[in-house]
Amino acid sequence: MNRMNLRLSSVVLGAGVYAALAVGQVANAADIQMGKEKAKMCFSCHGENGQAILPTYPNLNGQSAQYLEIALKAYKNGSRNDLMMAPMAKVLSDQDIANISAYFGSLK
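Above: the chain's sequence. Below: its structure in C-alpha coordinate form.
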Protein backbone atom coordinates (compact mmCIF):
# COMPACT_ATOMS: atom_id res chain seq x y z
CA MET A 1 0.00 0.00 0.00
CA ASN A 2 1.48 3.36 -0.95
CA ARG A 3 1.54 6.39 1.35
CA MET A 4 -1.40 8.12 -0.34
CA ASN A 5 -3.65 5.08 0.12
CA LEU A 6 -2.47 4.66 3.70
CA ARG A 7 -3.27 8.32 4.52
CA LEU A 8 -6.66 8.07 2.84
CA SER A 9 -7.43 4.91 4.81
CA SER A 10 -6.47 6.66 8.04
CA VAL A 11 -8.70 9.64 7.26
CA VAL A 12 -11.66 7.41 6.40
CA LEU A 13 -11.15 5.31 9.54
CA GLY A 14 -10.86 8.44 11.70
CA ALA A 15 -14.04 9.89 10.22
CA GLY A 16 -15.86 6.63 10.89
CA VAL A 17 -14.79 6.57 14.52
CA TYR A 18 -15.83 10.22 14.95
CA ALA A 19 -19.24 9.52 13.39
CA ALA A 20 -19.77 6.50 15.65
CA LEU A 21 -18.95 8.57 18.73
CA ALA A 22 -21.28 11.36 17.64
CA VAL A 23 -24.14 8.89 17.07
CA GLY A 24 -23.44 7.32 20.46
CA GLN A 25 -23.74 10.69 22.17
CA VAL A 26 -27.07 11.36 20.47
CA ALA A 27 -28.30 7.92 21.52
CA ASN A 28 -27.33 8.65 25.14
CA ALA A 29 -29.31 11.89 25.06
CA ALA A 30 -32.33 9.94 23.81
CA ASP A 31 -32.01 7.58 26.77
CA ILE A 32 -32.95 10.29 29.27
CA GLN A 33 -36.67 9.50 28.89
CA MET A 34 -36.00 5.78 29.34
CA GLY A 35 -33.93 6.69 32.40
CA LYS A 36 -36.84 8.65 33.86
CA GLU A 37 -39.09 5.62 33.44
CA LYS A 38 -36.57 3.28 35.07
CA ALA A 39 -35.82 5.83 37.84
CA LYS A 40 -39.38 5.74 39.18
CA MET A 41 -38.15 3.40 41.91
CA CYS A 42 -35.72 6.16 42.96
CA PHE A 43 -38.34 8.88 43.29
CA SER A 44 -39.59 7.82 46.73
CA CYS A 45 -36.25 8.87 48.26
CA HIS A 46 -34.57 11.14 45.71
CA GLY A 47 -37.67 12.79 44.23
CA GLU A 48 -38.70 12.97 40.58
CA ASN A 49 -36.77 16.22 40.23
CA GLY A 50 -33.68 14.79 41.98
CA GLN A 51 -34.38 16.78 45.15
CA ALA A 52 -34.33 14.37 48.11
CA ILE A 53 -37.46 14.16 50.22
CA LEU A 54 -35.48 13.88 53.48
CA PRO A 55 -32.23 15.60 54.43
CA THR A 56 -30.60 12.21 55.09
CA TYR A 57 -30.89 11.26 51.39
CA PRO A 58 -28.61 12.87 48.80
CA ASN A 59 -29.92 15.21 46.13
CA LEU A 60 -29.21 13.85 42.67
CA ASN A 61 -30.03 16.96 40.68
CA GLY A 62 -26.91 18.89 39.79
CA GLN A 63 -24.72 15.78 39.90
CA SER A 64 -22.93 14.75 36.71
CA ALA A 65 -24.23 11.72 34.88
CA GLN A 66 -20.72 10.27 34.92
CA TYR A 67 -20.49 10.51 38.72
CA LEU A 68 -23.93 8.95 39.16
CA GLU A 69 -23.06 6.08 36.80
CA ILE A 70 -19.82 5.37 38.68
CA ALA A 71 -21.67 5.41 42.01
CA LEU A 72 -24.46 3.09 40.82
CA LYS A 73 -21.94 0.64 39.34
CA ALA A 74 -20.03 0.68 42.63
CA TYR A 75 -23.23 -0.16 44.53
CA LYS A 76 -23.93 -2.93 42.02
CA ASN A 77 -20.48 -4.53 42.22
CA GLY A 78 -20.22 -4.14 46.00
CA SER A 79 -17.24 -1.77 46.09
CA ARG A 80 -19.59 0.81 47.63
CA ASN A 81 -22.08 -0.45 50.16
CA ASP A 82 -25.37 0.90 51.38
CA LEU A 83 -28.24 -1.15 52.80
CA MET A 84 -30.78 0.59 50.55
CA MET A 85 -28.79 1.23 47.39
CA ALA A 86 -26.85 -2.01 46.95
CA PRO A 87 -29.89 -4.28 46.45
CA MET A 88 -31.57 -1.74 44.17
CA ALA A 89 -28.48 -1.37 41.98
CA LYS A 90 -27.87 -5.11 41.71
CA VAL A 91 -31.00 -5.61 39.58
CA LEU A 92 -30.07 -2.85 37.11
CA SER A 93 -28.40 -3.59 33.79
CA ASP A 94 -25.49 -1.42 32.67
CA GLN A 95 -27.87 0.24 30.19
CA ASP A 96 -30.38 0.93 32.99
CA ILE A 97 -27.60 2.53 35.03
CA ALA A 98 -26.52 4.68 32.08
CA ASN A 99 -30.11 5.76 31.42
CA ILE A 100 -30.91 6.58 35.05
CA SER A 101 -27.64 8.48 35.38
CA ALA A 102 -28.39 10.43 32.20
CA TYR A 103 -31.84 11.33 33.53
CA PHE A 104 -30.73 12.58 36.95
CA GLY A 105 -27.63 14.16 35.38
CA SER A 106 -29.90 16.21 33.10
CA LEU A 107 -31.63 17.84 36.08
CA LYS A 108 -30.31 21.14 37.37
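Confidence is low (pLDDT under 50) at residues 15-30.
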